[in-house]
Design a protein that fits this description.
Elements: E1 2-4, E2 9-13, H1 18-34, H2 41-58, H3 64-75, H4 78-113, E3 126-134, E4 137-145
Parallel strand pairs: 2-3
Antiparallel strand pairs: 1-2, 3-4
């Protein structure tokens, strides 16, 4: 699981449960959207996991068991974590809304056309997402433009 800016690539572990794959993809998309030039790793992880939590909650996927502990680990827990989330709330919400609107548009497209895949045209910037069974072996790839 990684967001690689130099390659404009997001990698998600294919052996994970599908719900975990969705959460991880949302987390890594948040990094792609918010953290190209990250200066504060703890804040970046707090924001990315918070975006993933909001996205998953809106999709009916419970991720709180993992997400709350992950955020607390990076933010220090307690009042410190709450303050950091409040300070980043707007960025978190905007990134989550952008991901969810893209999911909604893709779902509408699929429903209208009755297809099981989305083919996108290359625009800048584009990100490649890779699902793999090992960190170096890609088994499935899809381009997301945004």
């Amino acid at each position: 699981m990684a967001c690689t800016f130099s390659e404009r690539r997001i990698r998600v572990e294919a052996r994970n449960d599908e719900r975990q794959q969705v959460k991880t993809l949302a987390h890594e998309l948040a990094h792609a959207m918010l953290h190209e030039h990250v200066e504060n790793r703890a804040l970046a992880e707090l924001e990315a996991e918070s975006v993933a939590f909001v996205v998953c909650a809106n999709l009916g996927i419970a991720s709180d068991d993992y997400s709350f502990g992950y955020v607390a680990t990076w933010a220090g827990g307690g009042d410190e974590a709450i303050a950091a989330i409040k300070a980043s709330g707007g960025r978190i919400q905007r990134a989550a809304e952008q991901i969810l609107s893209t999911v909604e548009a893709a779902s509408a497209f699929l429903a209208a056309w009755g297809r099981r895949y989305v083919q996108t045209s290359p625009t800048s910037p584009s990100w490649s997402t890779t699902t793999s069974s090992t960190p170096s072996t890609a088994t499935e790839s899809q381009t997301i433009t945004g």
